[in-house]
Structures are given as structure tokens and as C-alpha cells.
Amino acid sequence: MKKILSINTILLLLASSCAIQHAETDWPEITKESKPWTRWWWMGSDVDSLNLTYNLEMFANAGIGGVEITPIYGVKGREEHYIPYLSPEWMTMLAYTQKEAARLNMGVDMNLGTGWPFGGPEITMKDAATKAIFLKYELKGGEQLKEPIVVNDSRQTDIAYLSKLMAYPLHGKAIDITDKLTADGILNWTAPQENDYLLVALFIGKTLQQVKRAAPGGVGYVLDHFSKEAVMRYFEKYDQAFATSKTSFPNNFFNDSYEVYGADWTPDFLTEFEQRRGYLLQDYFHELLANGTTDVSKRVVSDYRETIGNILKDNFTVPWTNWAHSHGVKTKNQAHGSPANLLDLYAAVDIPEGEIFGNSDFNIPFLRTDTFRKKNDGDPTVLKYASSAANITGKKYISCETFTWLTEHFRTSLSQCKPEIDQMFISGINHVYFHGSTYSPKEAAWPGWKFYASIDMTATNPFWKDATAFFDYITRTQSFLQSGKPDNDFLLYFPMYDIWNDRRGNHYLPFAIHGMRDRLPEFVAAVENIMACGYDVDYISDFYIQSTTMEKGLLKTMGGTKYKALILPATHLIPVETMQQIIKLAVQGACIIFVDHYPADVPGLSQLKERRNQFKALSQMLPAVNSFDKTTEHRFGKGKIITGNGTNYAELLEKSGAKKEVFSSELGGQMLRRSHKLGYTYFFTMLTNRPIDQWVPISINAKSALFFDPMTGKSGQASLRQNNGKTEVYMQLKPGQSIILKTFTHKTIRTKSWDYYQATHRQTILSEGWQLSFPESEPAISETFALKTLSSWTDLNHKDLKRNMGTGRYTIQFDFQKEVGKEYRLDLGDVRESARVKLNGKNVGILYAVPFETLIGSFLKNGENTLEIEVTNLPANRIADYDRQGIEWRIFHEINFVNIAYQTTKFDTWNLVPSGLLGPVTIQELNPLQP
């Protein structure tokens, strides 16, 4: 007997089906995490409840999802208002901030310190950052040393103490003569006659580094990050402050880039070294200090570097994260700057955070470049350390300190920010933190309270009125990039041991963001070659290769992310354990790609002969290769090994079976691909002058797809076709633009079609009849100007227009006749710096990035039209005039307010910065296009 469904059941099923369809075709849910966040400096912790609310509402109304509090030095003349860090009053202000943020649906993060790095007044000399002081002496056989063995640095006289004194003969074993040295530095030891000796004394001293940019209550020594006991003692003040005040803990604790200068030791280092490396480092001090001039020296230096990195992870990063978890808090860490394998440090926290520092070169027409600039250190090859660590370990969020020193102060436009953000997105970043915003009371005179390295994401910046559109763009994009899973093609082995072994100079080797490309040129070249071939990679370390498994012919990392192959880029040194695991994976079905040559040796010094024999046995299991000049595929167990030359990555990678993305390999674009349950998500951006208007092959199969425009919020069904067994999507993308594509592998989605257009020969240029007035300006400008041509308003004959900041309203009336079935696009040309467009009294939109264009067909009417464009300029001319007038606005303690070169200087010599609508302004007629 057939079961008959009730009307209510049928309606419920239909409603459920519609809800699923909407979920598939709508934008992802917006959360506070999908919005941009900002680092929020509290100057002197000189905050009050009224202005905390003012600042937080300013952020929330603009579309910012959360703040990250970092207290720093204060404003001059307001010392009596400073609130000491972690004092009861400070905790009260924190609790009030959290309450207000919750009301506004915002989150609150907190730097676990003031300024940076971790440290403060409770750090005793015992727990302070530590350094090794090595002293060398030469001594002939049969003689005694005549000079005392003492540290002559007056700053270390009462601090440094002797750890070891070793004697190294020209031939023979080292001799420990530590007990032969008296308290006043006299050596009671005669060198044996048969040898000359090198004496090396190790004194343990202190760096004496103070916390940088510390706030009241936070001044003091920097912590010894290598001492677990010191680290755990550092957390005690936070346990006490939160427990006593009953204040809730923040969302995340943050640790800034590792800038612990000169700290290369810890008191227990020799013991740690022996336990981890299996031999006494003191027997090889002379090799450690030989700067890698011999093979033994290289191996000892490499072992030191591996050990100091291990200690940083095990004694600081992991205990910090465990301690935070005990309070229900996650950790967010910038590993760069550390003397360690950055991948392992990033992977040890909850939210790895990268950084961009400076600006990038983009070949985008009308993109403004500035005369004052610093080249961006945080390019995709650098940002991928953070995103790779998150991807291989299955972490959802990858954050980034965003726009640090993007330009000189007061010269940053939203149009410069947008391509930098896009470059971050294609690098895997999905949780933007602006750098940043300074708490400034509402009553503070312009330009308000300022932190010297900030882009100034606050209402004191004129672009704030238009920044909401930019924040919406970030939010829409991140809503996609925070959903689904990463889908990069390959794992790229990070040859850490080659780096540790080959880099000469000081044995202490930090990996700061600055100069990373120069420090690792071979690895950077490999990454860029692979990406230029139309593929994407995540880096993987030896540690995480050990937990990688095989699943259905794909490599699967511990976070559940899957990859088509593992690439070893011209690797020379590799641990036996790593080689064993790679061979095991290949036998089980993995594709392994060896570039230029097989690994040739093992790193490190301990048990070298035994490990080399093990390595030789493993190497003999690999397929015999006569020459790596030819790309060759070898069957190996259930998998395959591919060998070949790094000058032909395209052929190497093609043999893996991975399909390249034509968009990035041939069309000049940049992209990121992620997977979702029913298909894939692409983020495409065009950061070069290569417009696209064509069918574009994509590497995956799709039955249907949707376009989502994060600039406008529009979406629609993309045109797909199958061509020679490949899925192709019709795409129109101009330089500076970006788009999101969501594909469905087996499902046909029906929704409104994406709008494609083709320009006709009809173009209207609006060149004459413009009127310019200033509804907002400082200083105020009451005149209205009839313009003969569009150009910078600083060119007009009015002294205040050469020094103002504000918004100029450009108005023009023009006759127009629309044609039925046509669309029309308004293009503003060159805009300095952002524009609000209104046509016939209706708001069209905010244009803040190249290309400055928008569709206006529904706003145009036949006959007379009135176009209003409100353009907001930079504050550069205004602040330069302040300096010419001698207005004192640099009112901050400590470093006060330096320029992009970290120099104390004024801006009174700046040339005028163009302002306003430069055009040309055109209206382009468009025909609907059916690809």
C-alpha cells in the first residue's frame, strides 16, 4: 500500500529544498570573524569608558569585527591619566571594553604584554633574555695564560658568569678546564707541551633588552623565551590579575613578531643540547665559532640552530598555548623573526599570523604609487609560512598583520590597500588584522593620538567615511575563504637542514620577515616557479611529514588536508627518519618529485657514520637515474617517483597528474582554490595589466557554477562549457578586479544568470560643465568653482585648496538618451582618492579602488541627468601645512612619531599631493552578452 504524504509534509519538504538551494546560492553567513579586525593601541592605557564606547562604536559602525589591544607609551602631558598595566583600574577598563564589544557583536583580543616582545617589570635578571659571551685565547704548549679571563663589557661585569672553559689542542680531544679558573679570572693551568691550544670561555650574560614601546606598568626586561620556568613565571601575573578582578579572558592572546635581539642562549642550553643532539656542545665550541668553514663546523652550527629552535617551541610556544587553553583562550602568533623552523612554530598555535610590511609593485593602470615607499617584505612566498602551517594542521583561521608601513604617514589610500589585500588572500590569509588603530578620545584635536607605524584605521583619517565599502569587500571575501577546506596541489618540502647547514656567519640564525627572499633565494625561486606553472603549494616540515599518510592515492596531512604530490626542491641534506617516511609513502601510493638530484647526506654530527650507513641503504632503494636533465617517471611500489630538472618544473608537475590552472599560468592572474562539500571555491584577482574577457579553463570538473562579486555583493550563475574534456568558465576581469567562483561538481544549480556585457562603440565623455564645491573641508572652503577641465583641485587658484583635507563635490548636468536593452557603465578614470557617486539624487555606490567604475543603467534617465561625485582626498597636504605652520601635533613619549625610514623628521617639504577627480569621466554603453 502506497504511503500518501500530507500537504504539510510536502510543504515542509519544499521549504527544506528551498532553504538548501538558498544556502548553496547565497553568500556565506557573516560572522565577526569574517569581518576585518584591527590592532588597537592604548597610549599610556589612558582610556575612559566614554571614549572606549566612542571608539568601539566607530569600529562597529564601519564594519570591523574585533579589536586586539596592545598598550604602549603615552601622550605627553597626560601622565596623571595613565593607567598601570594589569592594575585593578586597567582590568576594569578591559572588562568594560569586553562588555561594550559584546553589545556591538565584536570580539576582543589582547597582547600578552605591552609593546613587544613579552617582558615587563616582574622579569628578574634571572628570567631575562640571555646571551652567550664567547671569549677566545691562544696558548702555546708548556705555557700559562698571562691575561685574566674576564668579560670586559662593563654592562655585564656583575651579571655574566662562567659556564665553561674549554681547551682545544691542534690535535686531540677537547679538555674541560673550567675548574682551573679562579673567581678573579686567573687560569691555573699549564698547557701540555706537545700541543698549542685554543681556549674558549663561555660566559652566560644578559641582553639587557627592554620591552619595546612599553606602556606604563609594562616597562622592564624582555623575557628569556628559552626558559620554560621563566615563561611559566611570566604567566603568573595574568593568572592573578584575571582571578582577582574576575574579568573574563579575551578571545585570543597575541604574540607579536619575535624581536628578541641577541638572545641566543639560556642557562640550561648545554644540558638541553646534549639531551637533544646526543653529544656535548662544549667539546665543539671552536667549531661553533668557526662560521661553517669546515664540514664539522657546519654540522655543529646546524645542530645548534636546530636545538635553539626546538627549545623555543617546546619551552615557549607550546607552554604558552597550553596555558592559554587552560583559560579557554586561543593563541595567535607571529613566528617570523624566530631562530627556528617557522612552519613548526606557526603550527604549534591556534591562529598563525603573517605580516605585510611595505607595499608591492602592481602593474595596474591608474593605481597610485607614492614617492615615499618601502618594498613589501611580506610577499606570497613569505605569507605562505603561516598559511601552510594552518593548512597542514587543519586550522581554520590564518591572520595577518596588515598594512604596516604600506606608505608614509597620511599618504595611504584605500585604492592602494585593495590589491595588497588581494595578494594576501591568494597567499592563504583569511583573517585580516589591520595595523592598525590608535585609541584617540573624541575631544582630541586632529590628527588625534597616533602610533608611528599605523595606517590609521580610524575616523581621524578622511577615508574613513568610505572605508565601509572596503571593509564589506574584505568581509564578503573572507566569508568564503573561512569556509570549506584548502585545496592546494602540492606539498613542498621545506629544506630546513640545508638552510641551517649552508648559511654562514653567526651561528644564531633568525628568520625575520625582512630580507627573507635574500636569505632563502633557492627556495623562493622554487615556490615562484611552481606557482607560475599554474599550481599552488603548502610548505611542509620534517616534523609534519612524519604524520602524513596516504588516502585514496592522495597525501593526507595530520589536519586532514589532501595533496597530489610531495616535491623535494634540490634538497641536499635530509634526516634518515624523513627519508624513511617519504619512501614509505611512495610505496603506499604517493607521488614524490625529486628536483635536480636525490638528497645526498644526513644533517648533524652525532652518530654520523651510523646514520650515513642507514641513509645509504635507503638511497639504494630509490630508482636509478642517469641524469636529472630529463624528466622521468618511475613506478615505485603503489606510487611513483618523478625525477627531473628544476628548469622544467612545468613538465615535472604535469607528470604528477595534477591539472594546472590556466588563469595563473597563462593569463597573468593570481588565484586561490578551496574545496566545499559539493565542489570548489575560487578567488580570482588580476594584479597585472592583463584584462580577461574569454573562456577560461579551470582544473576541476563542474556541472554548474556561480560568480560572487565581493565588491558589490552581486552574484549569478556563471556560463560554463565543456571543451576537450575540460570545464571552462566565461570570465570578464579587468586589472585590479577580483571575483569569487563557486563550482558544483555533480549538481546543476539554477538561479539568476551572471551579467556579462560587451562595450559598444558609443562612449560619452563628461568633460565640460563641472562644478566643484566642498561640503566638508578643513580649512573650510565656501566657494564653488566652475571647472574648465578635470584636474587636481590643488591646481586651482585658491591657497586653501593646496592645504586642505576633505570632500569635494563634483556636479554636472548632462543630456542623455538611453537605448532599450542596453546597460551603461560609469568610469571615473583617475580618482584621488575615493568617491561616492550619486545620480539623479540616488546613491549609486562608493568607488575606492581601481578600476573606479560602476553600472548606472537603472539610475540614468532620458533627458537631463545630474551626476554628483563626492571625492575625498588624503590628509597629506593638511599635515604638511601643519608642519609648515609649526603646529605641534607630535606629542607622544618614547619614539614619538618617526617617518617610514624611522627618522625624526617633519613633512613640511612634501610636494603637493594631487586631490580630487582627475578623470576622464566616461559613460560606456554596453550590450548584454550571452557567451
Topology:
Layout: H1 7-25, E1 37-43, H2 49-62, E2 66-72, H3 88-103, E3 107-111, E4 119-120, E5 130-139, E6 161-169, E7 175-176, E8 197-206, E9 221-222, H4 228-245, E10 252-255, H5 269-277, H6 285-288, H7 295-326, E11 330-333, H8 342-347, E12 351-357, H9 380-393, E13 399-404, H10 414-426, E14 431-438, H11 464-481, E15 485-486, E16 490-493, H12 496-502, H13 516-519, H14 521-532, E17 537-540, H15 542-545, E18 549-551, E19 554-556, E20 562-563, E21 565-569, H16 576-587, E22 591-595, H17 608-619, E23 632-636, E24 639-644, H18 649-654, H19 662-665, E25 670-676, E26 679-685, E27 692-697, E28 704-708, E29 715-717, E30 720-723, E31 726-733, E32 738-744, E33 757-765, E34 770-778, E35 785-787, E36 805-816, E37 823-827, E38 830-832, E39 834-839, E40 842-847, E41 853-855, E42 863-872, H20 876-885, E43 916-919, E44 922-928
Helix pairs in contact: 2-3, 4-7, 5-7, 7-12, 10-11, 16-17
For the largest sheet, list the strands in their spatial order.
Answer: 1-2-3-10-11-12-13-14
The proportion of strand residues reads 25-35%
Please tally the β strands and state the result. Answer: 44
Return residue spans where pLDDT drops below 50 for at least 5 consecutive residues: none
Rg, alpha carbons: 31 Å
**Gap from first CA to last CA:** 50 Å
Label this structure with key terms.
alpha/beta; 20 helices; 8-stranded parallel beta barrel; single chain
